[in-house]
Amino acid sequence: MSKKWKITVPGSTANLGPGFDSIGLSLSLYLELTVSLQDEWEIIHLSEGLPKEFELKNHLIYNVANETAKRYNKVMPSCRIEMTSQLPFARGIGSSAAAIVAGIEIANLLCDLQLSVQDKLNLSSQMEGHPDNATASVLGGLTISSMDEEGNVDTIHVHDLEASFVLFIPEVMLKTCEARDVLPSSFKRQYAVRASSGANMLAAALVLKDYKRIGKYMESDLFHEPFRADLIPHYHEIREEAKKAGAFGTALSGAGPTMISIIPNSIGEQFVEKMKERFPTHKIVLTKPDQRGVHVEEISSVSKIR
Question: For the whole prediction, is pTM greater than 0.90?
Answer without folding.
Answer: yes
